[in-house]
Specification:
The structure holds 2 protein chains of 2 kinds. By secondary structure, chain A is an alpha/beta fold. Chain A contains 15 helices and 13 strands. In chain A, helix 12 links the parallel strand 12 and strand 13. Chain A is globular. By secondary structure, chain B is an all-alpha fold. Chain B has one domain. Chain B contains 4 helices and 1 strand. Chain B is flat. The chains are: A alpha/beta, B mainly alpha.
Chain lengths: 358, 163
């Protein structure tokens, strides 16, 4: 039996999410390799309905393989398993439930079930991929034997996008811009980026922070975050950008002086690689897979001591040789994770894993 | 502070003189101070207060814990039975799914507001009970001191009699 198609399956698809960006890159590659490849979803944002198919419409065919993006526990996992086709699992890691305990107990309950579901899929999985050794440890704990690590893929459309002129016109000019990219989710701790801004404004009063990312099932938390910004007197200096298009995000990267990442749980953290590609120095909290993704580049913070974080940002913005060196090291690191290299690695891994299927 | 800066800021690039960067950070801290801006807000879940005075029963403490654990369990999940009618089944399923999603969206929107109201109520109850409990403690301590004093007096009297 020859492999004719590798279809991707995702629990949810939302424009601007790193998982969706990655799925698009993988789909283009799969089609380029002469395979049929559609993207099936459990749920899709209205803007992506044309590019995706609901999984209930999937009819298993001989020669099909499913590439399943595992991001959370979902009834979809059972359906993917029941389809009876060989599975390649791409494990994006799962946020620990405790982060959502107060923000959204429904999501917390889903997250708590994830590790159990991860183990359930195992008999049909030919290859389990993770984006970091940090994530691979979860796969091994769930009993997977054939595992591998490949870097996350940065969307080509973002890198090649022309920066949005409206964003550039609105925020260009004087002042120091800090940028935090990612969902407004409790594990990503955007409030800590806000606290860092608060401390940094003692040194650079014109500093401001862009929070580029939409809320994701954490409305209560986001309401609290808005209140936190007001309480700290930063209403005019923190900009909630919401969901951003590739062009808008490219503009924010163009404007940014520092990418700040205070996240406490990341399976890879695509924005770090985006910042490397855009030449923005990174200041990140040392947690989860972040040091691994940085691979010696950027500046890491081991404890959230805001006066020290503020001083690091000041040095990054005033010491040109240091800043240039940080950016240069980041570019080298980004080259190691070049999408064409990653996709070639993916092709080899899939080929080996499915050898006996073909 | 010296150790604190080196411990906090990690620079792995061997081409960077990390010690020199740490020194610059220390200079900045010496110049501008390293006090934390006061009163940073935290996103925290309400928590049942520990009751120490003994004014409240164990049953009330348990009920309070249950209340704190359950005040936000207000939501619904999408639950759908797919249609398997030939030809039109997929169309019916899609229509049902969109309709159910819409209902779930509005119910959960209302649920979130209810959660917020519940949270305010739970925080209020926690605070009231904690304040009553704290106010009750000095009175209990006074009672204890008083009882101890009376006991000591009685023991002295007994000792005098037996002596």
């Amino acid at each position: 039996m020859a492999i004719r198609a590798i279809h991707q399956v995702m629990t949810g698809a939302a424009p601007g999410s790193s998982t969706w960006g990655e799925a698009r890159s993988v789909q283009a590659a799969l089609r380029g390799w002469g395979l049929r490849s559609d993207t099936y979803v459990g749920e899709a944002h209205a803007a992506l309905r044309r590019e995706t198919i609901h999984f209930s419409e999937y009819r298993p065919q001989p020669g099909d393989v499913l590439l399943y993006h595992f991001t959370a526990a979902s009834p979809l996992s059972d359906q993917v398993f029941a389809a009876g086709r060989p599975i390649i699992l791409l494990y994006h890691n799962v946020t620990p439930a405790r982060y959502y305990a107060n923000a959204n107990p429904r999501v917390a309950a889903q997250l708590a079930r994830a590790s159990e579901q991860l183990a359930t899929l195992r008999p049909q999985v030919r290859l389990a991929l993770a984006h970091s050794e940090f994530s691979r440890r979860d796969l091994i704990a769930a009993g997977y034997e054939h595992t591998a690590v490949i870097p996350g893929l940065v969307s080509d459309t973002l890198i090649s996008a022309a920066p949005d002129v409206h964003v550039l016109a609105r925020f260009g000019g004087e002042g120091i811009n800090l940028l935090a990219v990612g969902r407004l989710a409790p594990n990503k701790r955007p409030e800590d980026a806000v606290k860092a801004l608060h401390a940094y404004r003692r040194i650079e009063p014109r500093a401001r922070l862009f929070l580029a990312g939409a809320s994701d099932n954490a409305e209560r938390y986001v309401d609290w975050l808005h209140g936190c910004v007001e309480r700290l007197g930063l209403g005019d200096s923190v900009h909630f950008c919401g969901h951003v298009t590739d062009a808008q995000l490219a503009a924010y990267y163009r404007l940014a002086h520092v990418l700040i990442c205070m996240s406490e749980h990341e399976g890879f953290c695509i924005p770090l690689v985006e910042a490397m590609r855009f030449g923005v120095p990174i200041l990140a909290f040392e947690s989860s897979a972040i040091p691994e993704t940085l691979g010696g580049a950027g500046v890491l913070i081991r404890e959230k001591r805001y006066p020290i974080i503020a001083e690091v940002m000041h040095v990054l913005n005033t010491d040109a040789p240091f800043r240039d060196r940080v950016i240069a090291r980041q570019k080298t690191r980004a080259a190691e994770m070049e999408p064409s290299r990653t996709l070639a690695q993916l092709r080899t891994l899939i080929g080996v894993a499915l050898e006996d299927t073909a | 502070m010296e150790d604190e800066v080196a411990r906090t800021v990690r620079i792995d690039d061997p081409a960077v003189d990390a010690a020199a960067i740490h020194a610059r950070i220390r200079e900045g801290l010496a110049q501008r101070g390293s006090d934390l801006p006061a009163d940073f807000p935290e996103f925290e879940r309400p928590d049942a207060p520990g009751l120490a005075s003994g004014l409240f029963s164990a049953e009330l403490a348990q009920q309070l814990e249950r209340l704190n654990a359950s005040f936000d369990q207000v939501w619904v999940e999408l639950s759908l039975i797919e249609s398997h009618f030939p030809i039109v089944g997929a169309w019916i399923s899609r229509y049902k799914r969109d309709l159910h999603r819409l209902v779930v969206f509005y119910v959960n929107t209302l649920g979130r507001r209810q959660q917020a109201v519940n949270e305010d109520l739970v925080r209020l109850v926690n605070r009231l009970i904690a304040e009553v409990d704290a106010a009750g403690l000095p009175a209990l301590r006074r009672d204890l001191e008083d009882t101890r004093a009376r006991l000591a007096a009685m023991e002295t009297k007994l000792a005098d009699r037996s002596g």
